[in-house]
Amino acid sequence: MAEIPIQRKERNSLWWLWLLIIIVVLAAAWWWWTQKSASSTTTTTRADSTTVTAPAVTPAATPGATPAADSATARGATTAPRPDSTRPR
Predict the structure, then answer these.
(1) Residue 1's Cα: distance from chain center in Å?
(2) Which of these, 9, 24, 47, 86, has the minimum number of CB atoms within 10 Å of its CB?
């Protein structure tokens, strides 16, 4: 009888699966990081309180303009601070 060399079958390489898993994990971590930093900057960013509480300055009236149309109140400016700007930070 002839001798037949018996060799183990080589398993298929799974390097592509590991590469795919690493790419998915890195993409998920990047998305989580950008969402986390975007939400933290929106909650900490507030309007500058000096612009809110500064009194409105009425510019010099132009000749022929009515004082009511040229006033800061007509443009929507207020001198009272917003309620959320008076809270301590």
Answers:
(1) 77
(2) 9
